[in-house]
Amino acid sequence: MILSEQDRKHFIRTLTPGGRLQTHRGILYHDDLIDQPLGGKVKTHLGFSYHLLLPTTEELIRYLKRSSQIIFPKDSGYLILRLGIKPGTRVIEAGTGSGGFCLALATFVGDSGHVYSYDNRLDMQELARLNIERAGLLHRVTFVIRDVEEGFDEEDVDALFLDMLSPWDMLDQAHAALRGSGVLGCLVPTVNQLSHMIGSLTAHPGFGFVEAEELILRQYKTVPARVRPEDRIVGHTGYMIFARAVVPAQEDTVDSVDNSNDLDET
Amino acid sequence: MILSEQDRKHFIRTLTPGGRLQTHRGILYHDDLIDQPLGGKVKTHLGFSYHLLLPTTEELIRYLKRSSQIIFPKDSGYLILRLGIKPGTRVIEAGTGSGGFCLALATFVGDSGHVYSYDNRLDMQELARLNIERAGLLHRVTFVIRDVEEGFDEEDVDALFLDMLSPWDMLDQAHAALRGSGVLGCLVPTVNQLSHMIGSLTAHPGFGFVEAEELILRQYKTVPARVRPEDRIVGHTGYMIFARAVVPAQEDTVDSVDNSNDLDET
Amino acid sequence: MILSEQDRKHFIRTLTPGGRLQTHRGILYHDDLIDQPLGGKVKTHLGFSYHLLLPTTEELIRYLKRSSQIIFPKDSGYLILRLGIKPGTRVIEAGTGSGGFCLALATFVGDSGHVYSYDNRLDMQELARLNIERAGLLHRVTFVIRDVEEGFDEEDVDALFLDMLSPWDMLDQAHAALRGSGVLGCLVPTVNQLSHMIGSLTAHPGFGFVEAEELILRQYKTVPARVRPEDRIVGHTGYMIFARAVVPAQEDTVDSVDNSNDLDET
Amino acid sequence: MILSEQDRKHFIRTLTPGGRLQTHRGILYHDDLIDQPLGGKVKTHLGFSYHLLLPTTEELIRYLKRSSQIIFPKDSGYLILRLGIKPGTRVIEAGTGSGGFCLALATFVGDSGHVYSYDNRLDMQELARLNIERAGLLHRVTFVIRDVEEGFDEEDVDALFLDMLSPWDMLDQAHAALRGSGVLGCLVPTVNQLSHMIGSLTAHPGFGFVEAEELILRQYKTVPARVRPEDRIVGHTGYMIFARAVVPAQEDTVDSVDNSNDLDET
Asked: Which residues of A touch B53 (CB under 8 A)?
């Protein structure tokens, strides 16, 4: 449940009998909220009012408990479409981070799909697990603690997302885990990484259709007489790079065999 | 199925025994493709090769048959998150258009959710129906031909999306259809509409938490030695405006009740 | 003179015998600086080093003393080109503000051109005058305190720039001051103003060739191994609108003449 | 002179007695235009009307005869400010290209400044010379044909602009030509070049205060009832990189002196 007020303070809480929420403007008692209609106003013991709202996936991600940079909703939504995520999809992500994108993946794969989330840091993954559990999605996610360069346990996954410093080190492992035509995606913040990843993907025989993109989000002030873009915005989060797993060309193998057969037919 | 070649020609086809696909570089016979591995190369009768790929939702939208402007994937993905769409969601859209966003909605609501899509033009909706049918999602969508100002048949829907010239004319009808705290979204191309819609939403007692945003997508050339943003990009699609359905303030109701009680004090 | 250090603290000072500059890292004595080579390092009494640099016009504007929002260099440079400013140009601006754009105008009109700067607030213009004086450009600027709706004293100016809340109120006055084909420019922050100004300019018989634009500046971090856009940027300053003064169509004049002749002198 | 019509066809011509201009809507005779007021309408022999306008610097650049990519006005204006160009400035550019930026530089340095423009291609520079001559600015520009890696003839110039494939090859030469605290600027299209140039500048003892930026220009449709950004825009021209010439740190010199003193151990 999210409680939100016009001044944009948000609290995301699961309502429990006897629970209480201490806001900066007084206390709200969960028992008073449980029977209230969604979208209605509730008041703190000091008389300030909040709205009772059900959070969207975008809000769950935006207000996640985090100990690291998360993938912003502007990027998450597009990544979901680009990676081909939908109910039933099996997808790997490395690494887990605070679990923001994991939450988006787990939401959209539904009960018939599954998310395999790898990270080498236990503390990070514990936080992510907590975030996913609170969203009621824990049954859709398998968490694995591992240095991902050792590879993935799954095969034939539909999509694989790399959120790590050197995604180019993972191309063989990613190709081994992806089904043919599956989508590889990654997000990197610097142009150095963008350039390096494009180079590695282009040179790898197991990937094709390399594309790179970035999204810039502009928020607008919504005062009716003075509508205008916000003065200060997030200018950059990262570059998204995509490729498709392809079957490495047969000819190359055949060719080399042919060549080795060239010897003296006489 | 999508057949795609490095020069970025795409064909999205459902493979059927005996079928054939005429490309600009020769013919591909469906029977030859059915047993091929995904991600592998196939050759036309002229010897040109294509890759056999399974399309992502992003590709299904991008290469949709269309007779009107569609909502771009960059916006669709973010709208899905912002509208709170997920497996199980019930959502209304008005109007249907060519069905691009309908396809995204139908994908993500899963079999447990549903899309109600309204439009006043039969020809448009027939095209959308065809696009949704091809994607195998027809059972998740109810199409309605209607001038939407007459209102919607559904109640307590989780989200409602307006893609029309004068979305401000639909606020009462939208509020009647949405559950409390449900999300209203719309997309408008001009600043005149942006300003008008923000004004109407702000003034309407049944909506709160008005926000407006736009997304700019930049594609990058992926030639490894010369990575750079594309010279020409789509500079604008539309402004996205969001609000939440709230219970109108009690005072208003009380006031009207008071007024109606003013009679017979005699 | 500008003194600048790698951590980007700047001080713009005119060096005077006996002067001293108190930085947050110690004192610099002007007498020690006067003979130093430009681009060289100088040290404070605490041993911290600064570079001695000559400021560019961009830096003079960026580090101006200000009591109001200034026009950013990203916009100033483009406005200079678009307004057709060059050595010899006569240009009016209304209002003066803190004098940032006035400084740019005064720089580029040279000694053979002139800037006429109007504002209705004496305190603002005093600050601007100080800023222009420090830049040594006072002889190129005439300051006028006036409610600009009363009109301008000049005629046949080459360009006229409006930086005010309701620039559409000034179109007749602007047309009277501009030479034929002269450029009118303005900068407004909101879409409401953008839309209003475009409407007024389009309807005015004395202006043609209306254009509107905005510029987004992205700074990049310059750490060689991690080049990337800054996380947070200025997302918006304002919309620039331009038009050309044209001779109103003959027909209109003829009409008014006809009307004024209606009285039969018999 | 520029002749312009509401449908945005432009012709930039110097009016000469007896001259004629063939437009796609009929002929205009220069003799008929010479006495017309600026901003007024003139008619072709077919009765179509054009406006007689004096071109701005922005228009001179935009409609330049070109055989290569030019630097766009959005970048030129900002570069002028950032490079510290103003009446009196001495500036070097390498290479000349079609002369678009040369025209901007020559405009703003005035008669008291000067532009030294280097290129290794005679054909390009001949075109640039023609463009500068038409703008009446030839006396402010010295053209030099040279492979710029051989260095520049000038010393103590205020600013130096590099528009070439490998600007990092020119840092020693640039430092030798610039006065202390002078501004080095360059424009490069790819992230590879951006990253390379930042690395080279950062490592060079003769440069400091490295900054990198890019500008995105959005044009708006100016139909009053439907104001909106243009659908398709220029998404990228180039990255601008700036640095200041500094006096290399004393220590370095001392070190080399020490080393050169290592002889005569006998």
From this structure: 181, 209, 244
